[in-house]
């Protein structure tokens, strides 16, 4: 090692969230098109996929087919499937549909919590135990995703201590792991490392993942900072799709193919095939009916030498 080497883990675990976070801001996508997306995503080698969310179909109509999507997941054994829920009712629906590994969202800020779930942060935290019991009773696990972990579109900057308190309370109530969400894409590398370190210190032994949006162009830099800090679980969305319908100004997640390109070219193994990801992005683009925001996808993937004399 020399003084200019990055200190990076040998491997990371990427969770694909395009089927849920990526689609929740889109117009309705037919079930068959979603299954084609899933087929293409599984072919990339991804081991964890957030398949859908069991939330109000009125609030998020494009995911109203959650039960139908869940019924098809047995087509692809070997993938760790999970679903997002916003309350115990959603957890019951998910478990009844055969998805026992749950993600429960708790907003660290009251403003976003009320807009997203119709209740305060304290009330949302108070339901963690019930959701955990439902997941564990079905043989699954519970990950608490802390939304607006850094900033809120209504309340402004979220104090580190507030996010840490939510994390500590969630673990005490039964959460098996945590994920810190940059819901509106405002954080920066130093703030990422500061919060990750604080949460780890408060919750020793609990896996802590990250979920970044690229709204202000800092998503990949934040991902690299998190990985340098030892985070090995990262969310990403095929093509850079995504956003939160209850967070004004929120745009897409970091693109899975861009994250994989950055990490693999830096010597960090992801287990995902870049060419297969680009193929999955093409399938996704057809499904949603518009151009994807991913710069790498638009560039066509890795640079291919043109050869001497080839016109530019």
From TrEMBL:
The keyword Methyltransferase does not apply. Keywords: Lyase, Metal-binding. It comes from the Bacteria. Residues 12-278 form the Pyruvate carboxyltransferase domain. GO terms for biological process: ketone body biosynthetic process; L-leucine catabolic process. Gene3D superfamilies: Aldolase class I. Belongs to the HMG-CoA lyase family. This is Hydroxymethylglutaryl-CoA lyase.
